Amino acid sequence: MKNKLALLSFAQRCRNILASNWEGHLHTIKADAKGSKGEIHTSKVIYMFHKGRPHLLVPEGDLHNTNTIIDERGSLSICSNVPGQLIALLRSLKKLPARVALTGDVMLVKDKKVQTVLDSLNKSVSREHEIASRFSHSVSAILTSAGPNCKSRSEGLQNILNQIHLYNLYKFDIGSCAYIDGSGGTHDVDLEDFEEPKSELLLPFSAKLIDGINRSQTRRRALMLFCLEYFNTIARDAVMLSIDQNGFDVLARVPQNLNNTGVVQQHQYHWKEFRFDFKEAATDIEAFCRMLVELEEEAFEHVKSYSGLG
């Protein structure tokens, strides 16, 4: 692991969230023939990026189709793709998944250009399916141990493509971007720094990978070992919170308060985030899992060396 941890920029965090998910919530201003009413309509939509710009799939019967004829202004909120069990833990801590907030104009894509965008989406989904078919046994084992409701990006989008005739396609011209952390803090991102998600071999599978790791007690004990080895902190429990090419974030239950003698008081534990960075970037899910195992082995060998077990 790197000796000095590198912090991800807010633009990078936005890119990672956008690459891992395919669903967002679109907000438009309710309108009728008399003009804008000022009320907000919100519903879930599907998104993808094409030529650097978000494109949205909106169900045919959704009010967004009417609202955007009168007023093109809209906003799009996309959460970090956090699996169900982890969501429950975050809610118990009164935290929310980190998310990206975009504002801009929502415009219907003309018929001639629709097929071009959909062809691009089809190619992307097919490529991810092909990549998944070549996963090693060890990686497949982690992914298949994820919960039944936990999907990869390609699995989620394939369901949409099977009924694409039920959707209208819109492009979203971004006017502003912000990263909102789990505590609700808002961090504006300069559009010059905004990074669209490129073709990815890791993040589209992140939710299944995180859930698979968190459902394994052996993997969770390894995360606890990381806290001891790299932060000199004894964790009672730990879960994987997020992943990216540079490393991963862990949420661990660690000692909170010390008495005057420096001893932890009974039952004084809280959940705290820790960041772990790899020595080099993980270009795909196979590389990520390999580096994670190497980190586990490195930490275990170090513990053995100073504990007298080696």
UniProtKB/TrEMBL annotation:
Gene3D superfamilies in alphabetical order: Electron Transport, Fmn-binding Protein, Chain A (2.30.110.10), PNP-oxidase-like (3.20.180.10)
Protein's recorded name: DUF2470 domain-containing protein
Record organism: Carex littledalei
